[in-house]
Amino acid sequence: MQCIGIFGGTFDPIHYGHLRTAYELRAKLAFDEVRFVPCGLPPHRNGSITDGAIRVRMLEAALATEPSFVIDERELERPGPSYTVDTLRSLRAELPETPLCLLLGMDAFLELPTWHEWSRLLDLAHLVVAHRPGWRAPHAGPVGELLRGHGTESLHELRESSAGKIHIEPVTQLEVSSTELRRSIRAGIEPKYLLPDAVWSIIVETHCYAAAR
Fold first, then answer.
1. pTM score > 0.85 for this model?
2. Average pLDDT across the chain, whole number
């Protein structure tokens, strides 16, 4: 059965930290594709966000050489806050039997109880959490309880059911921050080797980070 990774974020801008994580998870978990879902209106972010059309252009440039990396614009097309649970409901309606794996960083996973309708996420998808080697799973609190009840080390279990499992996978996490990239670009520092050259060309062309954000 086909298995799809769902990678959400503002991607403002997309950088090698995003790309390396998606690449390793696709390879290790044998996803048929990874869908990058740029956020329309992030519920947890203060301040403005770069126009969605520009962020999609940057994604297209960054993903051009990876045919299994695709862009899904449903959050940009949907009005109101971009709640992940609504995105997963929409995907599940289109793909009722397909295993869907929501890709999360460790920071996002630990903050899961602050998400809108977070308890419904596992009804709609598996959770795949990328972490640094040496990290220890939480044992207490709602996240620890969720992991005890749904955790699995078996990649086979992610494919034999459409949702409901949590898998922790170590990846090479590059310490690259979109916030710091925007700040350094405004300061006149070229982000060489932190994001693809094609993405940098779009940033230069559009001046999308010239104003304070």
1. yes
2. 93
